[in-house]
Design brief:
By secondary structure, the protein is an all-alpha fold. The protein has a domain of about 130 residues. About 65% of the residues lie in helices and about 0% in strands. It is built from 9 helices and no strands. InterPro entries: RVT-Znf (IPR026960). This is Reverse transcriptase zinc-binding domain-containing protein.
Length: about 200
Amino acid sequence: MVKLGYHLAETIDKNNDSSTFSSNSNWWKRLWALKLPKKVKIFVWRVINDDLPTAVNLLHRKVIQSSACSLCNCSRETLVHALFLCTRAQQVWSLLPSFTAVPNISQLNGFEIFSSLAAATSNSDLERILCRMWSIWTERNMETHGTKPKLASLICTFADNYVQQYINSSLQQTSLESSSSAQSCSSSMEQNNGNTCPTVTVK
């Protein structure tokens, strides 16, 4: 987590415009505050930096010999195509009422897409959108390696449930920690016969 934050901060720091830097930093804080599993946040960080192993990126690195989309064969597999414009991705987005298409998305980079989505949606909607992006990418990789394609509705259900389960788990953990802290405090006071207050260390 710390290394991830350091690398993103380093990337942002390359921009000499202080106002842009401030704006980028705000978006980074927005991302890290979202209630999403670490693996999804890492995926989004890679999107922001256009670091996903799309066919276009792999061709540039001379790993493969064609940049064509392996699922639809209708276009080059750029980040935008893979996550938004491929027919497979469009089927998923059509099932999310809160999703509003980003204008001129084909001309935007990963950071511009993220900041546009973040500016237009609440945290809860943004969490669902980003998790669906992650699910679309995960499903693409599975299909590329021979897994039978899933219905768009199943991809949506999986993504939404994944977010909700993470939130529920986090709330449960917080509740357990609060309960444990309260019990510890009560026990300490009983041991001191109520004559002194337990010491609290602020870190």
